[in-house]
């Protein structure tokens, strides 16, 4: 089919003949009258084949269902390729012309057949060929793809709609409604989210709406949940900003040249405005590149908000950037977002680092508040809570608050209610509330706050503090309690015996050795 420019040139050539003016006048008055076109074609029997093809195309544009015009046109097309090889491009043109002639009759039936046979690949191939001749029905193809779960191909077809300047569908959608189409695709085509965000932004760029495109990019990089999609959108965003900056710089350079040529005019103000605009664009690009690590961090946390390591990396980014307030907000968001049962990594370490952050900035009150709150989460194991108790005591020791450090560990070893929770379980067992097996199971399923009093780590720290800060009586009571609860290690027993010897309690020291022999079996005791 000739192009519009070629057709225009041929029409001008036809009009050069004065005898054609009469026919052109009749056609302009009644283009849908078949008789006018037939008379015109009959008058041009001796003209060249290209001119007659253009006349036929013009006639069929107004009368696409005329059997007489199509039959005459196709007959002439066939005679033109008679004797040529089937691979000749002219033969393909004839095939295309036949398909166009049969379009409205054949294609609806062909498509229904292709969809009905149940072979997805066949239907897709038929649809693709159909769209070569009637691209306006691309949305119909997209609906079929959605029903078959072909999300990638559907996204590709939507992108074609975006890039088509003249796109208008039979359903009444235009390119100006593409935003809604692509946004609906974002929730359906999860594997193509990054590409769809880029296509949506590119749509607004083509319309010259740069700020709207920038908003789309920002929305994209702050909502995607995979690094692959983020990288795709971010790279497109940065390239867009670089291209805008380059264009502004080129305009500024052109302005400088014009200003030199037009000395003595009022162009200085315009040049200053261009320079300011370039500075603004440059600052915007630099800010975008600086945000990349934080944006990637946000993507990873949207994937899994319970990832302790990613929260720690995010805090480090703010600390490195000299933004302590943002670091504190990040710590607060982290401990609020992470579920202790779903945490990836040590949640207790995050709480301890949070408290130390306040400590490093001289805020002892808030550090203590954080430590107190860190004692409340239901950690997955007792050792995590024990680590918090020990870090709390170490914090008090670093600031010479020895009495407070001792009180912290006393709280840890007596349970949050002031008495060992095991006593209540045992009381219920003795009164018929539990059997021995169910009592043990109840203790294992109880919160870590009810079990931390039997942590070896907690008792080791507590006994060291009692030896250093307590009296001989309180130290002896602490060691006795540890052995009674059977949480004492061989090292604790030896330390207790040595402590008694140093304070000249020789008989008591010997008794401790005997009790220790009863607590441990081989290989600790031979």
UniProtKB/TrEMBL annotation:
Which keywords does UniProt give here? mRNA processing, mRNA splicing, Nucleus, Repeat, Spliceosome
Which residue numbers delimit the Pre-mRNA-splicing factor SYF1 central HAT repeats domain?
177-338
Record's InterPro entries? HAT (IPR003107), HAT_Syf1-like_N (IPR055433), HAT_Syf1_central (IPR056350), HAT_Syf1_CNRKL1_C (IPR055430), Syf1-like (IPR045075), TPR-like_helical_dom_sf (IPR011990)
Q: Name one GO cellular component term.
A: post-mRNA release spliceosomal complex
GO biological-process terms attached to the record: generation of catalytic spliceosome for first transesterification step
**Residue span, Pre-mRNA-splicing factor Syf1-like N-terminal HAT-repeats domain:** 20-102
Q: Where is the Pre-mRNA-splicing factor Syf1/CRNKL1-like C-terminal HAT-repeats domain?
A: 340-525
Q: Which Pfam families match?
A: HAT_Syf1_CNRKL1_C (PF23231), HAT_Syf1_CNRKL1_N (PF23233), HAT_Syf1_M (PF23220)
Q: Where in the cell is it found?
A: Nucleus
What the entry lists under SMART domains is as follows:
HAT (SM00386)
Please list the coiled coil stretches: none
- Source superkingdom: Eukaryota
User: Into which family does the record put it?
Assistant: Belongs to the crooked-neck family.
Name of protein:
Pre-mRNA-splicing factor SYF1
Q: What is this organism's lineage?
A: Eukaryota, Sar, Stramenopiles, Ochrophyta, PX clade
